[in-house]
Write a structure and sequence with these properties.
Order of helices and strands of chain B: EHEEHEEHEEHHEHH
Number of helices of chain A: 2
Distance between the termini of chain B: 31 Å
Strand content of chain A: under 5%
Distance between the termini of chain A: 95 Å
Helix content of chain A: 40-55%
Oligomer: heterodimer
Shape of chain A: rod-shaped
Strand content of chain B: 5-15%
Number of strands of chain B: 8
Radius of gyration of chain A: 32 Å
Helix content of chain B: 25-40%
Largest sheet of chain A: none
Structural class of chain B: alpha+beta
Strand order of the largest sheet of chain B: 1-8
Largest interface: A-B, 33 and 43 residues
Radius of gyration of chain B: 17 Å
């Protein structure tokens, strides 16, 4: 009888202890804050190697190409 | 550098759909998803006007405000992007957007709705730059290559301008002064009329 009782208690304890090892399955949600993966800056890559000024210069050149009135005219900078 | 903006000059747009084709080709956008489209007002009537419409990357983007899973973020250049791994395809952003920009790919016999897809200002997404994953989910990252959106750069009449807000506003201002008409920029006030969206409130604060 005692053996059966000990087995029953052991079984109950093992089930109770199983809960302690349970991992949190739900992500922590912060309302109103971006939850996704972080993104890098457009100049943080192999092409520009973190040089923000070089990137801005490239973008500025592309911006100026859209202006057909000044296209082909050398600019001061 | 100022923030990135789009501007469409209705006096110049000839409804050639070059921008739409450029976008489709550049990002290999699937069938049924139109990140950019050309809308013609008073079609067939003398004096009709066409405008190229896509995500305008609003200052105070309503899509960011309504997203229940907060998958949107704004880059330092003012480009509104989202994480497709988080998107649940609920469609709230579509209802909130004044430009009808968010697109939802539909597939299968039952028209299963997928994760939201929209214009990224050719800036990719929150994956490693130039990676296969970034291209598959968001398309090409031209901004990281030092280039501007393909639609604007491809525009044959330069009706669609995209890039540094100050520069494109200057280009447009000069045009209006020279031709003496067409000073109204469709969608500009709606997209950029409100102040820049402030960072999210602290946790626990009222939203």
């Amino acid at each position: 009888m005692r053996q059966v009782l000990a087995l029953a208690i052991a079984a109950v304890l093992s089930f109770a202890a199983a809960g302690c090892g349970e991992q949190q399955a739900v992500t922590v949600y912060k309302q109103g804050q971006y939850q996704g993966k972080p993104d890098k800056q457009p100049w943080d890559n192999d092409q520009f190697k973190g040089d923000k000024l070089a990137w801005e210069k490239a973008i500025k050149a592309r911006n100026d190409i859209q202006n057909e009135t000044s296209r082909g005219t050398p600019t001061a900078n | 550098m100022a923030r990135m903006k789009f501007l469409c000059d209705a006096e110049r747009c000839i409804e050639c759909n070059g921008c739409v084709t450029a976008c489709k080709n550049e990002h290999e956008v699937p069938w049924g998803v139109n990140r950019r489209r050309v809308v013609t007002l008073n079609d067939g009537v003398p004096g009709e006007k066409s405008i190229s419409v896509a995500c305008m990357h609003c200052s105070d983007a309503p899509c960011m405000a309504v997203c229940p899973v907060d998958c949107f973020y704004k880059t330092s250049e003012g480009v509104v992007l989202h994480d497709k791994d988080l998107c649940i395809g609920c469609g709230y952003c579509f209802y909130a957007c004044p430009f009808g920009a968010p697109q939802f790919p539909q597939d299968g016999a039952f028209g299963l709705r997928g994760k939201m897809d929209n214009c990224t200002f050719c800036a990719g997404g929150p994956e490693v730059d130039f990676s296969a994953a970034e291209f598959k989910k968001y398309g090409r990252n031209r901004l990281a290559e030092g280039k501007l959106p393909a639609c604007a750069e491809m525009c044959s009449t330069k009706a669609l301008l995209g890039g540094d807000g100050d520069v494109i506003a200057d280009i447009y201002r000069n045009r209006v002064l020279k031709r003496g008409k067409g000073s109204d920029v469709w969608g500009w006030g709606t997209a950029y009329g409100k102040p820049e969206r402030q960072p999210a409130a602290k946790p626990g604060a009222k939203s």
